């Protein structure tokens, strides 16, 4: 795999994280830099680590794990999305402005959006890709794109108000469905 192919792969892998970062920005509306960077950093970290996990699994029991991962990603994204949809209907005049961003709240999203990167790691073993530089590129590109997406989502969220949380939740559910349907139909 050439360096250019790794960059293209990194952009492709980052798209789920970017969409979820956009949804998080919609929900937060006025994110502090610390919160935006925590979201982007966790997404970049997990997008970078999951191919390593897949690469390691390629030597063992990848077939057993690969059939369950789309279901796990769907379940996690659907639950978080459903919670956001429910939040959008709650009576709260300052809805979204007090949302808490912690490692604990971001980790499930980071895992769910990076599961497909583990499958890419399996191919790294087959294609004899230099893993360390590849995962660094994947992680950095995901982090940078996700950081921008949080702020874009926040700008849109300020204009949409509580509808932004509804839209963000629907986006998460749809991403989960896309992952699951790609697995079932592919």
UniProtKB/TrEMBL annotation:
The chain crosses the membrane at residues 6-26, 38-62, 68-85, 106-127, 133-154, 166-185. Pfam families: Mntp. Coiled coil: none annotated. Belongs to the MntP (TC 9.B.29) family. Probably functions as a manganese efflux pump. Keywords: Cell membrane, Ion transport, Manganese, Membrane, Transmembrane, Transmembrane helix, Transport. It comes from Nocardioides bizhenqiangii. Its main location: membrane. This is Putative manganese efflux pump MntP. InterPro entries: Mntp/YtaF, Put_MntP. The keyword Nucleus does not apply. It is a multi-pass membrane protein. It is found in: Cell membrane.
